[in-house]
Design brief:
mainly alpha, 4 helices
């Protein structure tokens, strides 16, 4: 049960916090894609930080590694990351705005542009 709470439920908090920051309607697939992003980012970052700074020797998530001390460390870092990562992502999305425009070009226009480029 603690494995489920620590690994799967806390990224839902990140998705809800990010949606609160954006304040716009999204489809269910967007929520799911954001969940997958936050799930992988938060859990990878937590395991990396625990391995680097606390000397934990876990390379995969298993039920055996979730003892009381590890749960406190993992939950604390995960809660911190659930608040920090959406803030960083929201800031990046608000500063960097990329718009893509796709134009339909006729074959004649493409051929004439190729000829102009050769000259």
């Amino acid at each position: 049960m603690t494995l489920f709470i620590c690994v799967f439920l806390l990224p839902i908090l990140a998705v809800n916090f990010f949606s609160f920051l954006e304040k716009k309607e999204k489809s269910k697939i967007n929520y799911f894609m954001e969940y997958l992003f936050f799930f992988s980012t938060i859990n990878f970052t937590i395991l990396f930080a625990l391995a680097m700074f606390f000397g934990e020797k876990y390379s995969t998530i298993s039920n055996a590694m979730f003892n009381n001390i590890f749960i406190v460390k993992y939950s604390g870092f995960s809660l911190f990351m659930c608040l920090i990562i959406p803030l960083i992502l929201f800031y990046i999305k608000s500063v960097i705005k990329i718009n893509f425009s796709v134009e339909n070009l006729k074959k004649d226009n493409v051929a004439s542009e190729k000829n102009n480029n050769k000259k």
